[in-house]
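request received
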Amino acid sequence: MIEFYNVQTKIDKNIILKNITFRILKGEFVFLTGSSGAGKSTVLRHIYMDIFPEQGMVIVENFSSAKIKEKEIPLLRRKLGVVFQDFKLLSDRNVFDNVAFSLRVTGAKNKEIKRKVMRVLAEVNLGQKRNFYPRELSGGEQQRVAIARAIVNNPFIILADEPTGNLDADNTFEIMEILEKINRQGTAVLMATHSQEILNKYPHRIITVDNGQVD
Amino acid sequence: MNFWFTIREGLKGFTRARLSTFITITSIVFSHFLIALFLILSINVDSWIGEMRSKLELEVYIDRTLSESEAGQIKKKTLKISGIENAVYISKKDAADRFEKEFGKNIYEILQSNPLPASLTITLKPEFRNAPKAAVVSKELGKIPGVEEVVYHKELISIIDNYMSVVYLVGIVIIVLLITITFILLYNTIRLTIYARRDIIEIMKLVGAKKSLIKRPFVIEGLLQGAVGAAIASGLVYVASKLIIKYLYPFLLIKMDVYIIILSMGMLIGYFSSRISVQKHFGHV
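response:
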């Protein structure tokens, strides 16, 4: 469902990825690890087609980096959920509206939005805080909102770029448990992390990016 | 749903980049108020000038040797010339009466005879009340056999024409300048709003919003800023015109068209400046 074939990528004339090939299967939980600047985020950006390989090809479900048209990219992204280290929540709207945002932009109906948002907020234990603004929440809670936003569209995979990078041990554990739960429900997870502790604690397949190459 | 989303997000833009939104709306109010004043001024000048032009008459003096019925034939011929609205026949006797009315003396008592010729007083259709067309009509009249002379205020009408073209030119230059300034200000405000809302644009892209949906709120925002500014300007123009009529000049003419022009201009400038701005700056965020 996600395949990298001999992907080589340059950003500003620097080679970031060198001839990378790997595959992520349906419902899999995979860690993407490597030191800072090794190219983990670049791998994720290829999947949501924010950048394109200079050589090789990335295939995500039915979309190929070689053939996708610009206007098809939003359709691809609606099948993915993306979570970042810095949460990327909108500070001018509350928890409910932050999560509802990704449904609103797809033109969903109000009734459907309410039902889906309440369901995912319950899943990340934030139903009680739906009227809170991001600044009123802890880091862990903010990341749970971001996860709720990522899963509200029923994506087939969650791409998480260092989602616990800004969190303490308790909150990290909480986020990991939520990601595990989502994965058990059938959604694949590709999580970039350089935390050895997490890698040791959660026994999933690991793809290591080192100097632009994977092993 | 997407429609309301666009409107809501467009309105939210008002609260982002607040200072520049405020400055832009203030400038739109100011420029549209000035444009409206120019329009009102030109409507009034037009009406004064129109009134002056309506007083333009051509005097056609008829050969003294012709009889009244022959002179009547000449009147018929003049009415066939295009551009002539009316012709009034003034017989020798009418001319003598008029002389007496104006100067208080009977011409027969002064000269023992009446040397005043019979004449036709010609008025022109409104579109012919300018120097070049009046000259053409005058020439045509001169060609009619039995017409001795055609007299009218040639210089006055040329002065009015020249003066009006200068007034129009200055008016157009100032209006174009004001529109350009408003356009640039709005363009820049939308640019600032786009940068101020990088976060929302990034998130919209990530969650799979179509490009058109991401861009539309900014265009709506520009349109609304233009509309709000123009509406405030219209309100001010309304109040100002009432005050002018009450305290300064009771004959001030003001047409509904001014408000319609101002409002549509505000919205059009808002729409196009923001569209171009979004087109230009969207790729950079």
